[in-house]
Design a protein that fits this description.
Elements lengths: L1 H9 L3 E3 L3 E4 L4 E3 L5 H4 L4 E5 L10 E5 L4 E4 L4 E2 L11 E3 L8 E7 L8 E10 L1 H122 L10
Parallel strand pairs: 1-10, 2-10
Antiparallel strand pairs: 3-8, 4-5, 4-9, 5-6, 7-8, 9-10
Length: about 260
């Protein structure tokens, strides 16, 4: 009896914890770690049921300390970092048959130095999963609706902003057009005024030319009259002188005392 108790005391104590709950169709991770800095890389194995004195009962997966050596199904994965001592077992796509006890054994060099971890897995039915999935879908739908509404509001704000910018641009374009039209009319008015001034000056110059010509013609006519008058006077004098000679009076008038 004492020998049995001694052997039990020498055997490494088993570690267990609270049961893990999993859901049908989902994944679950059963935790198992050891101090790799102290023990270095050590082989491990996972099995179903209690861990026997040697190896693992109904072994599921095992490693040589660095990589997976054996695996009964791809549903069993070691997704932790083996080099950090994380040899947690992940079971994919749970079913009712996955419920029960699992054992993790870390083979530590030396007699009775192995570490043992027992974990009980409980599986909940699809109804809970359906409820959870429904809640997730509802949450996703609400988030989508919220995002869609927010997107609509953002689009509306963008349209309003675009309309405001368009109106502002139209006002600026109208102001520029008004300024250009005003400048054009001002240029036309200035051109017209300059044209009127030039035409007035030309008109005055044209009106001055006939007056000057009239004065010249008047002077010419006056000089012609003077010349004609002088010619007539000379002819009269000649006629008078010639008459006196015909009478034989020596061209002199009778003298009456």
């Amino acid at each position: 009896m004492k020998i049995v108790l001694l052997i039990a005391l020498l055997t490494v104590g088993e570690c267990g914890g609270s049961p893990v709950v999993g859901y049908e169709g989902q994944n679950v991770t059963l935790s198992c770690k050891y101090d790799i800095k102290y023990h270095k890389n050590q082989p491990i194995c996972w099995g179903r049921g209690d861990i026997p004195n040697m190896g693992c009962n109904k072994q599921l997966i095992s490693t040589d300390g660095y990589k997976v050596e054996e695996r009964v199904s791809s549903r069993y994965q070691l997704l932790g970092r083996l080099n950090d001592g994380d040899v947690s077992l992940t079971i994919l796509n749970l079913t009712d048959s996955d419920a029960g006890r699992y054992g993790c054994r870390v083979h530590i060099y030396g007699l009775f130095n192995d570490e043992k971890h027992h974990i009980d897995l409980n599986i909940k039915g699809a109804s809970s999963t359906t409820t959870s999935t429904t809640l997730d879908r509802r949450t996703s739908t609400e988030e989508t609706t919220h995002n869609y509404t927010t997107g609509q509001l953002t689009s509306t704000e963008t349209i309003i902003t675009s309309s405001t910018n368009s109106e502002h641009t139209d006002k600026e374009s109208t102001s520029v057009a008004v300024v250009l039209v005003g400048a054009l009319f001002g240029l036309i008015a200035l051109t017209t005024a300059v044209g009127v001034v030039i035409m007035g000056r030309r008109w005055r110059q044209l009106n001055k030319i006939p007056t000057h010509q009239h004065q010249v013609n008047s002077s010419v006519q006056f000089n012609s009259v003077q010349l004609q008058s002088r010619g007539l006077a000379e002819e009269n004098i000649y006629q008078i002188d010639g008459g006196s000679d015909v009478a034989g009076n020596g061209g002199e008038y009778e003298y009456c005392p």
